[in-house]
TrEMBL record, chains A, B, C, D:
PANTHER family attached to this UniProt entry: HTH-TYPE TRANSCRIPTIONAL REGULATOR RUTR, TETR-FAMILY TRANSCRIPTIONAL REGULATOR
Organism of derivation: Streptomyces cinnamoneus (Streptoverticillium cinnamoneum)
Residue ranges of the TM segments: none
Pfam family name, one: TetR_N
Matching InterPro entries: Homeodomain-like_sf, HTH-type_TetR-like_transc_reg, HTH_TetR, Tet_transcr_reg_TetR-rel_C_sf, TetR_C
Protein name as annotated: TetR family transcriptional regulator
GO molecular function: DNA-binding transcription factor activity; transcription cis-regulatory region binding
PROSITE patterns the UniProt entry points to: HTH_TETR_2
Length: 197, 197, 197, 197
DNA sequence: CATTAAGCGAGACGGTACGTCTTGTCTTTAC
DNA sequence: GTAAAGACAAGACGTACCGTCTCGCTTAATG
């Protein structure tokens, strides 16, 4: 009687799932996260509200799935030309372009904001989007260390956060402009910080 | 005809203002930001809803005023014992304690999150809370540079962000634990980054 | 795009409908029409406000439906013992009792008042409550005419209004006491007015 | 200490009083009684709200005063040409015109409606507007009786109500059109009802 | 002739209700 | 048995007025 309601995912409608993702991403871009509603997503997707409630616990969870379904992943890792600073500069410049793209902004900001107030969501958000980011930077730094360009005892994880943290903060809180100049400076300082003495 | 209705602030009730701040901070701690409502604040404060709508445009704006009314400011600046690393370690350790204090968390997280989706609010938030923070670090670094401990050409603003950005990100997104060890490591790396060669 | 939102009445909750009627009639008796609120009705009925707004345009419309759902109708017509004056006296005396009953007063007064200022409502009110009343009197007068007790050329509709108009006015505006004596006098005069010369 | 707040009427501003009346009558015509508000009257009249609350207990009371300040009174009584039926027909035809005048309708309807639900107000309304009306008709009927045209034992008050009640009901509840034909028929029937046998 | 006390315009206040919107649950019907 | 549709109870939204209050400002009438 007190069945915990676990829906049978084998019978799930892929068509509805896609439509919900598309609708969610469209709407968050059009009206913003605060005015994004489950009703609105259902209506735009041509889907019953229950279909959303059946599979996701909140609009943030829908958006996170929608976003990660689209987002490219980090499987490749960072380029390694042998020149650490140049590689970091290159990748961060690409990130500057990406994060300045309006399409990308709305859902990402929304998720970051929602995560700030919801530990469960942020655990997911971090595991799926931020950790992989930190990891590829840490990996690239480790490769540099293995090549003798970085001090043995440097904390590479923290170094990676020193690249991404200021970047994220400028973007998320708008504490400053997100430019190539900024990321280049950042790379210089971090490379200097971890450089073999 | 389209008068913007600007209320007369000289007739404003200080008692109501305080009661609203207290209620907002209490409630955000009790129920969280998402379930914080203007109605709830008004009821707790023993105030009409209109009194809130008259003076603030949103619950985020109320919270920002409430928070900054309470929050200590940065007038004093950072300590300067002559030992840059020690001073930074000391201050960041204090911040670790502050940001791990539950009282402080709810409103600050809420404001950061709300700011992420609302440029107008984040402008206020940054100007009143984050900029002053960045500034005192920049000032302390400048003093160190004047004392010859820091490279002439180092970008001190970005260096300050390298301290605060990773800190903020760990705390806000919970990408890692906010410990003394972390901030000490951060200080080491940053000091090394800007050190006179 | 400008769909008028017509709800599907086949899915309507009969339970809610009844609860709303009961609550409306109770409350109008307890607090009066001016202090009768949709919120109050919804709360008393254990119903969402939207459920009321979905089906009725105003509290007056709710009350009219509630009232007519309860009110007995006039299917039977007036008694016809052959003695016109006696029959009219009898029925009007019954009406005196009915209109002096506190239970009856509140909703009826409220509807009459609301109708005075709202042509659409009064059209409904008249069609459902007043016209049938006038009709049964007109019918009884016609029967009397057919029996040769009433002048051929008498305007029976106006005669019926001469019974009900003064009655209504005394009751609604409180221009005088609503007693058997009054209605008996009324009947005498009207019977005399239409009597065959 | 518990002074019941009796304002000093000698210091009252006649200018404000007039402005309030004008505003109330204008507004009731423009927006209807339900949307007539004290705030609106005050704003239109260029008057503080307190000035209204100081002198009247409700918007209905304001309107009643405003209306009676304008309305002509019945001092003159009805014409007496010796022909009762002709005199009544004449006066009622004039009333038909008056009650079909839009200017007149809004406030009068509003007051009648408000009175229906407020015994205190209706006492005032009846005493100041309806009783005098009934009285002049009763007086005219008495004159006719003194001239031998009306039965000695006829209840003249009820006869007067038989003229005004149906008239009021048609107008207030819109149970039928308010025409000369209707009032002429009414007069015929009433005159016949009270005629000396 | 200054003083003082009232009425006044103005509008902030604590409240209540409005009518709308969205939430998350539930039920019905179609596939 | 999932899905589209949508009614439902609940409750917050932001607005409009309520009736009370306090603020300066006329404006008498009094001491």
């Amino acid at each position: 009687m007190a069945t915990p309601r676990t829906p049978d995912s084998t019978r799930r409608s892929e068509r509805s799932r896609r439509a919900i993702f598309d609708a969610a991403l469209e709407l968050v871009g059009e009206v913003g996260y605060d005015k994004l509603t489950i009703e609105g997503i259902a209506a735009r997707a041509g889907v019953g509200k229950q279909t959303i409630y059946r599979w996701w616990p909140s609009k943030a969870a829908v958006l996170l799935d929608a976003f990660t379904a689209d987002a490219g992943d980090y499987e490749a890792g960072l380029p390694d030309t042998g020149d650490l600073a140049a590689d970091l500069r290159f990748v961060l410049r690409a990130s500057v372009d990406e994060f300045n793209d309006p399409k990308f902004q709305a859902p990402y900001r929304a998720l970051a904001a929602a995560g700030a107030n919801d530990a469960e969501l942020s655990a997911d958000f971090v595991a799926r989007l931020m950790e992989p980011g930190i990891k590829v930077y840490t990996d690239r730094l480790r490769a540099a260390r293995d090549q003798g360009q970085v001090a043995e005892d440097a904390d590479l994880r923290v170094a990676a956060e020193m690249l991404l943290g200021p970047f994220s903060q400028r973007w998320l809180m708008r504490t400053g402009p997100l430019t190539y100049e900024f990321t280049d400076t950042l790379v210089d300082l971090v490379v200097r910080a971890v450089a073999r003495r």
